[in-house]
Design a protein that fits this description.
It is a single chain. The protein is built from 10 helices and 8 strands. It is α+β, with helices and mostly antiparallel strands. Strand 4 and strand 5 form a beta hairpin. Helix 7 packs across helix 10 and helix 9 crosses helix 10.
């Protein structure tokens, strides 16, 4: 069972009608676990089947794709200020994951099992719509950012991050943003200096 103060951020995000439903809140408390992670901890490893979704109370998390050669490729970021729900595509497919989720900071999350989310969604249509909308928004934003990354020159994309995703460039280590952009860390540092002069 999770404490009331741990749920505050989630309750501020979900529809008011659900917050006012005592039975829903009791079930949420009973079936939600509070997880604290350290920098470098993994929520999901390649090869595992993703059985959980997380709501981020605090922290910064990175999504990694592991190639057949074992090379890490950065595919996205989530934080306590953006993309509040966290999971992997394997959550929906229930196949072994090609992706990993790693914490880049000390963090706090609310953890939900897939079976609980499914059960709650069946019995509370408003929650089902909220959760589906939240997940679709996150997927859409990840794809939009990926598409922009592919269609822009590196300097243009980095300038876009500084303008629209300041939390990324201010909190994420340079090497991960460089990897996400598909450029070397050295080139990223040069672009960063150039972009900062312009802003």
């Amino acid at each position: 069972m999770v404490a009331d103060d741990c749920l505050d951020k989630l309750l501020a995000d979900i529809p008011e009608a659900l917050v006012q439903n005592e039975q829903f809140i009791d079930e949420l408390k009973e079936n939600t676990s509070f997880v604290q992670v350290k920098k470098g901890d993994y929520l999901l490893r390649a090869g595992d089947i993703c059985q959980h979704a997380w709501f981020i109370n605090k922290g910064l998390y990175i999504n990694l794709y592991i190639s057949e050669k074992g090379q890490e490729n950065v595919t996205g970021f989530s934080s306590d200020v953006y993309f509040p729900f966290l999971s992997a595509i394997g959550y929906f497919t229930q196949s072994p994951s090609d992706f990993e989720i790693k914490s880049l900071e000390e963090g706090e999350l609310l953890c939900f099992t897939r079976s609980f989310i499914d059960n709650l969604s069946l019995r509370y249509p408003l929650f089902a719509r909220y959760y589906q909308d939240a997940m679709m928004m996150i997927i859409a934003k990840h794809y939009s950012l990926f598409a922009l990354r592919q269609s822009c020159k590196s300097e243009e994309f980095l300038n876009y991050l500084y303008t629209h995703y300041a939390w990324m460039v201010n909190r994420i280590p340079d090497k991960y943003i460089a990897c996400y952009m598909g450029i070397s860390n050295e080139w990223y540092c040069k672009l960063k200096k150039r972009v900062l002069k312009l802003n």
